Amino acid sequence: MRLFIYLLGGLAMATAFKPVKKNIQVPATLKASIERGKTVYVQRCMACHQADGGGVPRMNPPLDRATAVVANDKAKLIRIVIKGMTDRVEIDGEMYDNNMSANPDLTDTQIADVLNYVRNNWSNKAKAVVTAAEVKAVRAKLK
To answer: What is the pTM of this model?
Structure first.
């Protein structure tokens, strides 16, 4: 009985002194963008980059844990989504050969949404939000 009381007391003390995790609140507008972006991702991106964002080794690069995905160069990502990519590319020390098709038919909002989804899903936590205005500006420079 004494052992039980000691164990119960120890358990109570252990739970009382757990560090408190801060809840990081995602702004409602970003949350909505991420939800819409998930739909675009499933329709356009998942076949190559996979449901878990892991890609296919030596063919389609991973989006999860890829430094280029969460980097501050949002314009580069926007260009890739709009124009596609045919170059062999190195990402985080691994080479990838498969072409990525262009998506010029996606709206500025759809591109911003899918990039916000990719940059804030799995283990990715990007600091900057991609906006439709940024996509529009990049698209204008591509013409």
So the answer is: 0.81
